[in-house]
# Entry
Amino acid sequence: MASSISYHCHGLTDRGLQRELNEDAFHISSDLGLFIVCDGLGGHSCGEVASKLASESAAQFVQSRVDSLNKTSEFCDLVKDAVQSACKEVYERATIDSVASGMATTLTLALFAGTKLVVAHVGDCRLYLHRNGRTSLLTKDHTMAQELVNAGTIKKENLHTSRYSHVLTRCVGRDEFVEPDVLVTDVLPGDQYVLCSDGLIRHLSDSEIGEQVEGDTVESSSSALVNLANSRGGQDNITVIVLSVESVNEDDYDPEERRDVVEVLKTVAAFRDFSLRRRLFLLRVIRRVRLAAGEDLLPPGGTLPGMYVVRKGELSLQQPQAERTLKRGDSFGELALTRKRPSTFPVVAATDCELLLVERSPFLALTRRKPRLGFAVLRNLLEFMVK
# Structure
């Protein structure tokens, strides 16, 4: 599951021109690659409470469990359970609070998982993919109008003008349980995704949504979408999240090697108590270094490019006070993870060996995107230095 998806994202919500309240809500967790859009049921009590509660509940559910996952199927179960958790929380709040009785919301959630995007969907918010100049709708509306289209009773082009287009067949919180649609799509460089509430699609066609994100920044695209919807009447609240994928890079380990590498990382002091997911993240900033017996790794006075971990064989640190032999799971150069440090003694392969180099620059870039991971490494390094 280790991969590196580099992307930009921006979210924006607007009351529109004809509603007194904004009953939409959205959530972005950039460090997890998690995105949620909710639309509280208009005309119902506390729609804005339902959407906010559902988005926060689903986000917290994912955040508390995602680090332990690896398989795509596990991510599918996670997003499904997150929606169900949100549904139960909204339903229970409506049950005990008479003011909130009957509140409910739609919810669309997207989560990056390796090189895939995993989606859970209930209601009529939407997720679009714009790829190679073509815009595709990935979700299906849970509305009576969509059911009539499926049955062949009305034509697809009449979906938005049907009087049943806003009659929901599924939503979050109306009942204690709900069954979300779950889908998985491959992520490719250049992909652009738009999550939006139905306030946007009342005024823009699928192709127009694609035109607004084509070749523009995520900030400009999200503003353009909202402004265009308002210029055409702004009949409802409008919420959009725009994602633009720059690159997708998989690691070059086969499954057996990957399992072995993450097992070795478990023994490294800097990564003590790291979950499997966190160790998999580290594969993005690790490259392998192979040495033959007797070969020098670094000459004295050279700059350490990061921290080295022995995966196979033995490595000799020829320190002035005493020679030290490193074996599988041993590491050196920990402080070079955070700043440039010189190599002050010869480092030679005692046998044929393979090292894992955690490179400083990519590692620091990763910690800027995932500050909690960086904090955990710094904490472990401080404890290592004290000992």
Observations:
- The chain has ten helices and 20 strands.
- The CA atoms of residues 93 and 283 lie 42 Å apart.
